[in-house]
Amino acid sequence: MTDFSEAREAMVARQISDRGIGDPRILDAFRTVPREEFVPDEARAHAYEDGPQPIEAEQTISQPYIVALMIEAAELSASDRVLEVGCGSGYAAAVVAQLVDEVIAIERHHDLATLAGARMERLGYDNVSIYEGDGSKGFAAEGPFDAIIVSAAGSHIPDPLLAQLAIGGRLVMPVGEPNSVQQLLKITRTSEEDYEQEEVGAVRFVPLVGAHGWTEHGDRADARSPAELIRDFAEPLPALDDPAFGALFDRFGDARVVLLGEASHGTREYYRARAAITRRLIERHGFNIIAVEADWPDAASVDRYVRLRPHREGEEAAFQRFPIWMWRNVEVDDFIRWLRRRNQDRPPAARTGFHGLDLYNLAGSMRAVIDFLDDADPEAAALARERYGCLQPWSRDPAIYGRIALSEGFARCETGVVEMLRDLLARRVDCMGEECEEWLDAAANARLVKSAERYYRVMYEGAAESWNLRDTHMFETLCQLLDAKGPDAKAVVWAHNSHIGNAAHTEMGQERGELNIGQLTKEKFGDQARLIGFGTHAGTVAAAHDWDEPMEVKEVRPSLAGSYERLCHDSGVERFLLDLREGADGRLIEALLEPRLERFIGVIYRPQTERWSHYSECVLPRQFDAWLWFDETKAVTPLPGAELPGEDETYPFGL
């Protein structure tokens, strides 16, 4: 009988150790297992060659180095239970058996499974069990597993294998097309819902044939369309007033910031859904900041109402400028009243605030800074009047200032507004008391004036620069709120999809160089920020035909073919949540990664030019962490224009 010990030692040294596999346990395992016993008799002389070798059933035994690479990536411990998919002749299972407590191996070919089982028994590997079956389904009866090693390439990581991985477990598998270079992936399960992925290297493997892999002919066994995949993975939504609706979003409760979008500024279901989600996040998960796509002075009036703070004499009612219906509607009104009731029996420090992020109300912000300083520092108030006097002539129509600055070639008011902000930020305040709230309000208004002065100057120089300045201002205001409220502060943001979806994965970011709050928040907070987009197929919406024109209830045209909205409509599920985070089903994510059109309706809606006015190309699974779908929606209900009889005079929407 031929002695292969020298060949085995040479294989370990030259093919494995010299290529960077240095774990002594792994090297010893390869020295121990007789590879010649796992190939047909006629191939024994070639068993230790540096490459794959043919075995029965027209299959192959992998190159020794690749087997070692996969085992190293799996980070095996002596107490582990390991599942091997596609065990072939059993060689890799035998090597793994030297390193772990137990190996469960699955092989779909009857002859190979029978031969491998006989080898294990003959060679004494009593901690290895060989089963015949579809390895793409895993082996749920024996799970969970500390490690799963898949010796065949799939189009994606099968869901059953992910589900059978223990928390902290590692899965190693090649992913890619048959007969081509594939990528060896390592997946680590970090929690019930979360997985981390890393690339190990380029490889070539036979295809994983099975229900969650390929067919015998090289086609995907799961050939469902993107719409069918959405149908299968969508989580149907309960009624908006059902507590079960809010409970669906508990999965995002551990985030620091949850950003809730909308595909229009005038859709009832979006506002009601955001209110229900926000209530749940406040009540169950400790969120204490609501930050909305609205101007700071207007939202501050609402904030004083919901946190039962004193009303400011002479202050205008909130949200009286175009687009009035965006915040002065029945849906927002209901939420604000609920928030005041919730805050009523809580100490001031435990009350949830309502804050604006936007920068349009220049006049209101200048007035708010001066009012604060009139009480806190009359001399500084006089200086503020002087500095802001430069902007005062244009405060009601600041775009005129932008045109003048452009024609004059300089920023005549910039120095004063920058100095005003600097002076306010330099003030020392006690941020445990009411003084902090007033200072925070004044500082935010001073920041708004500074940003607005620049915004109206650059708006004539290019859309990207003005957009980026506006969203950067909103992001900085959000960060200012979080910092002021302390390390335990948690915020919910209400803004349009165009602001909260990660711009880096949209046409606006890739083609136009625009960023947004969602992108900046993801870059700063990572997985502590969750971005949730909203969409609809058809219905009605509150919108205007042009800026400063009256609101109309407009019919929303059915979504365009080739859009994400059309895929959602074609799924046949009327209302659903689609979780798009890392660790979601690979087939769904892969099917949605192709860039597609997505609809954006703001306060303006022009159905006649919808394709060019309201659609942009995006990559949905990279843009959002989740997607909320309402197939047919209705317009918001604007509040009546007059104060209701008996209304509290401090109510922010009163006239």
TrEMBL record:
GO terms for biological process: methylation; protein repair; response to antibiotic. It is found in: Cytoplasm. The keyword Lipid metabolism does not apply. InterPro entries: Emycin_Estase, Hydrolase/PRTase-associated, PCMT, SAM-dependent_MTases_sf. The active site is at S62. It is an enzyme of class 2 (transferase). It catalyses: [protein]-L-isoaspartate + S-adenosyl-L-methionine = [protein]-L-isoaspartate alpha-methyl ester + S-adenosyl-L-homocysteine. Belongs to the methyltransferase superfamily. L-isoaspartyl/D-aspartyl protein methyltransferase family. Catalyzes the methyl esterification of L-isoaspartyl residues in peptides and proteins that result from spontaneous decomposition of normal L-aspartyl and L-asparaginyl residues. It plays a role in the repair and/or degradation of damaged proteins. This is Protein-L-isoaspartate O-methyltransferase.
